[in-house]
């Protein structure tokens, strides 16, 4: 994988890292270690046609062009890169002129997206230090140290030190196919260590999402966090409360839908980060013995499906993450006099309302999530037409999988899940037999007798 590479590892005394603190390098950023093509294993075969096209067009137009970040890191680790980030000294406007199929996105971080069919190549202009006095730039930093805008153009050396982790600051040059290592990332790849560039607390304050990225890469790559990178996490976790919920939603997809969701979840909890994203779920796990298992099993099944290249939906995962809170709220509503269906609807509304303040959930996912929850109340009803209506519901399959998870997590005694398994496999006669059996089941819900409703308390929780 990265054999023949070790001679590029620095001796400890030679480490650049000590130069990379915020107060460091008065003489400017250090020169990179350049690894020629003959001495590293990354070839153009690791990269997609569109990525190469973008690199060559920039290069042939006289600009510097490099692949950077995850794609080089992953290629060095023997993984197939999943997307490609290009760094260049061309400004976004100059990049746009070269590619008709492009558009500029982002405010905090202006990026050009060049589209080739379904593939998008992200092109960023080298960024400089936000505090430098620079013409033609927009950089803003809040009082708490958070970067609000980061669009100061700079040199490749400066760009490298603005990146988050040493292993993400590796640049592959299309001019001579060499790799430029600015922060000793190759050594960290070799040691399987995730290390922030610069002073960790400062870098987390600049952008608290880096805390989530640390955990995500550690889980995905099976790397250890360097001690100094790990140390501030607990204390700084609450900074995530300042991040816009829409950005955290995007980040959550990357955290949980990357094939290593379960490992990521455990690390997030370990560092106190999970409670900042899903506070109600965190509370429910403390109260309900099965709530954690529901989430873990949903994540394990998502990981497995991704591995098998089967489709996954965030709706299912969010349904699992928030099921504990919905359960607690429903109990509360029923206690206050609502019957099960309206109790669950009110509970769902309250839980979503609170969650949206932390991590947003777009309607296209929250609607199916609610369907999965609602169907949990319908699955126990196994009489008459209802059974077939439930079976034909577009979200039946997800709701059935969800039911199985609730059973294996210990929320429900087993039984209903296998009934539905059998029902799906049975022919018409078999289905009739199963329905008759359900009829005789003393645990099956009876038709609800009308009962006097207790008056509802004004202003239920939230
Ligand atoms: P992957 O695409 O596999 O999730 P990646 O490292 O490519 O991993 P991206 O989000 O695609 O991650 O970002 C591309 C590169 O941009 C990173 O490798 C890193 O160098 C830089 N980067 C991204 N987000 C940040 C951030 N919040 N702070 C500093 N640098 C960042
Ligand atoms: Mg990437």
Superfamily at the CATH H level of the largest domain?
Beta Polymerase, domain 2
Report the portion of residues in β strands: 5-15%
Number of domains: 2
Largest sheet: 8 strands, mixed
Q: What's the total count of β strands?
A: 12
Question: Would you mind describing this structure in some detail?
Answer:
With 462 residues, the protein is α+β, with helices and mostly antiparallel strands. It folds into 2 domains: 6-198, 2-Layer Sandwich (Beta Polymerase, domain 2), CATH 3.30.460.10; 249-440, cca-adding enzyme, domain 2. It has 22 helices and 12 strands. It has helices at 49-60, 70-76, 92-98, 156-162, 185-190, 200-206, 209-221, 227-230, 233-236, 245-256, 261-270, 274-277, 279-287, 291-307, 314-321, 323-335, 340-355, 363-378, 384-392, 396-408, 416-425, 428-440, and strands spanning 33-35, 65-68, 85-88, 102-105, 111-116, 119-125, 138-141, 147-151, 170-173, 179-181, 193-194, 224-225. The strands form 3 sheets. An 8-stranded mixed sheet has the order 1-10-9-2-3-6-5-4. The chain has a two-stranded antiparallel ribbon with strand order 7-8. Strand 7 (138-141) and strand 8 form a beta hairpin. Helix 20 (396-408) packs antiparallel against helix 21. The longest helix is centred in the middle third of the chain and has 17 residues, at 291-307. The chain is elongated and about 80 Å long. The relative contact order is 0.07. It binds adenosine-5'-triphosphate and magnesium ion. The site of magnesium ion has 4 residues, from loops. Magnesium ion binds next to loops.
